[in-house]
Amino acid sequence: MCLGIPGELVEFGKDDAELAVVEISGVRRRINVGLLADEGLKPGDWVLVHVGFALSKISEDEAQAVLDALKELGQQYEEELDALRASDVG
User: What angle do CA 77, 81, 89 make, to 5 degrees?
Assistant: First the structure.
């Protein structure tokens, strides 16, 4: 199962403007933010991440609500976090 997971933007890549670092439930991962180039993203913004790509900008309240719901999935959520730890977009 693949889930869209909210991540908070931490920093942007120095060499590639389409890459950024997000933190998702304590896991930092580099993702591609190119699909949201016109959103004016900045550190502290929240995005919905799926398979290494930021798909949409979301509010912090929406991010927390989604994270709370995902945590209720238990094992499926933990498996998604494990997959996130093992992957990187680069």
Answer: 135
Neighbour tally for 37: CB within 10 Å: 10
Q: Encode pLDDT of 26-44 as tens digits.
A: 889 999 999 999 999 999 9
pTM to 2 decimal places:
0.82
* 10 burial type by CB count under 10 A (0-12 exposed, 13-18 middle, 19+ buried): middle
Q: List the CATH number of the domain containing 29.
A: 2.30.30.140
Structural domain count, the chain: 1
Nearest to 32 by CA among 82, 72, 70, 89: 89
Domain extent for 52: 5-86
* Alpha-carbon span 83 to 67, nearest angstrom: 16
